[in-house]
Amino acid sequence: MNISAIVPVWNGRDLLAGLLASLDAQTLPVGELIVVDNGSADGAPDLARAHGARVIPMGRNCGFAPAVNRGIAEARHPLVAILNTDVVLAPDYLEKLAAAQAPFATGKLLSPAGTLDGSFDLTTRAATTWRAGAGLPDAPPFDVGREITSAPWTAVLYRAEVLREVGLLEESFESYLEDVDFGLRCVAHKVLGRYVPEARATHLGSASLGRWHAETVRRLARNQVLLAARHLSARHMWRAAIGQFLWAGVAFRHGRGLAWIQGKFQGLRLFSASRRKFQQKDPELLEQVLLSNEEFLRKNCADRYWKLYFSLTGVGQSDT
Asked: Which residues does the UniProt record annotate as the domain Glycosyltransferase 2-like (predicted)?
């Protein structure tokens, strides 16, 4: 069962060394390792070549989506793993994902402290998202496998045929939420994946910029608008406004108010073009998925942001 592993990298040599060591130890070896270099200046490409990788130079930092797309275009095997440099895989990680025999699969991502870093992605009718389990103890319900509609592209395995059917990542996102957009496009194609909690990996987290780096916040703020444009029907835009303005409070609290404003203005300028480029084929199917996501989130996440969101928008109420 041959696997092409795609690793986008930008100045992450030390992190890349950890990932490559964990790939060397896999019980299901990769048949092809493709490292797409976004203009690293720390020797990361040389390290990759020393491990037998095929290195594709992008020449500059083009962002996550363009780098991964280039790698996918070069991949030759029926299974494609997309891996961040800041993950370390358990030896049986890829074997357990492949054994699920799903169109796509992801495992349980843990922080270095042993708490959950995330599992699968849940998108709401505000086009804001929760990486399910992030920051919570490694405990139920995240120790039970389940069907999923969206997986973080931190350490995910896809059938190559799914990538051909659904398409590549939307490059206007650059980085952040491009994997969520892909998951919502999977909904349009009625493609479901699998969460495999027995497959475990450690995610060091936000290694490229940092969670509350100004550039991270700018891109997240912009891409929330692009998600709304591409996937939400008009009747949900009031929810999107509430959810995304609530997220502004989080950004301002971390000293990133200006980055949030910049991102929102950039997103609004791209809104119409993004809406023309893609819209959901079956809005009612997406409605069911988003309602289910919100119900799971309400039951399993006590974060203040989500409590405020549900208190202002209601729980489990369809806008039809």
From this structure: 4-100
* Distance between CA atoms of residues 140 and 26, nearest Å: 27
Q: What is the pLDDT of residue 279?
A: 82
Identify the three-state secondary structure at position 245. Answer: helix
**How far apart, in whole angstroms, are the C-alpha atoms of residue 8 and residue 65?**
9
Cis peptide before 152 (omega within 30 of 0): no
Instruction: Report whether 187 contacts 233 (CB < 8 A).
Output: no
Q: What is the total residue count of the chain? A: 320
C-alpha dist (Å) from residue 80 to 45, 47, 201, 210, 280 = 20, 22, 17, 27, 25
Q: Which residue has the tokens 């996440």?
A: 301
DSSP H/E element including 109: strand 104-110
**Is 217 in a helix, a strand, or coil?**
helix
Weakly modelled stretches of the chain, pLDDT under 70: 1, 206-210, 315-320
Tokens of 308: 């405020």
- Name the amino acid, one letter, at 307: K
In CATH terms, 3-203 corresponds, of 3.90.25.10, 3.30.56.70, 3.90.550.60, 3.90.190.20, to 3.90.550.60
The structural domains of the chain, with segments of one domain joined by +, span: 3-203, 214-313
User: Is residue 109 within 8 Å of 119, Cβ to Cβ?
Assistant: yes
CA distance 255 to 267: 20
Residues near 78 by beta carbon (within 8 Å), at least 6 away in sequence? 1, 2, 159, 160, 161
> pTM of the entire structure?
0.93
